[in-house]
# Entry
Amino acid sequence: MKNVVILGSTGSIGTSALKVADDLPDRLRIVGLAAASNVERLREQARRYRPRLIALKDPAAARHLLTDPEITAEICSGEEGLLRLATMPEADIVLLAIVGAAGLKPALAAIRAGKTLALASKEVLVMAGAIVMQEARAHGVRILAVDSEHSAIFQCLDGRPIESVRKIWLTASGGPFRDPHLWPKERFSEIQLHHALQHPRWIMGRKITIDSATLFNKGLEMIEARWLFDIPIDRVEVLIHPQSVVHSMVEFVDGSWLAQLSSPDMCLPIQYALTYPERVPNNRVQTDFIKLGTLTFEAPDTERFPALELARRAGRIGGTLPAVLNAANEAAVAAFIEGRLAFHEIPDRVRRTMDAHQVIENPTLEQILEVDHWARRIVLES
# Structure
């Protein structure tokens, strides 16, 4: 039995993780849950799973739960609440599914408390990969990938040395604007929020869905892979695979390739992370290759989707530039959602912010957070 804390329990990853817990009641016990603002969903989860501690980002929202007689958990709030959950003495594994930079401090707190970290928040490694991986090594903590792509790479490597790897290949669905005939670059100025939220394969939160539409999600995953697997970013590539069945691949130095395949369902990589190193029986994910039929691959169009090259540039230069890339993209996406920025302007604003930044080569955590704030402020001014 593993005691599990879920930070981001009301989002798509968090709710999928609870489905996995439902499937494996003799193996997984939920001891802590945290959400940003979805009071009612957290209320339902607290009543059902009866964790020992729950947290909401907003203290005022948390007070709504204090008078609920069906909630037995202790209730806390704010950043302090997240840090308490991340370091719960009884927790064995912390699943971090907080969108954006807000997950960085809880991730480091969990690592320093000796907790296994199941990581679904790629921004943590994009912003501070060197610091996070150094802390994980210093505390003997394993970081397990939850993103389907990085879980696939982890499964393909299966302990093989990175020296045996020629390249890592991350697959991408291509998002709703993959077809250049339907959406040529000249039409990108017409893209509205409802267009960008129509992901062809996955049901996700708004921010990550828009990142998938711009391919910034894949760019962030390139940087995440660089740190998770200790490989130069120039050996991390992207392939467009619209069927989302091959979740990623490893090309070895002898010319062999290994891939991990399954029907697209986030419950599978989540279960693998929560039950690692075992593979536990579960019939939730069923893959029928006869019904799937043809699997196709194509090169990404970096002219229509410049996010990949921006991410590669940030990964090559390193230092504080990946944090700038991440923060500028987060702020630009938020502005697009609010109707203050056009879709096609997102990569342009990120590029300008990166160009305006003077890189710090070996930043401290404080410097990374300062740069994060700077980039969010300047991105809409550039």
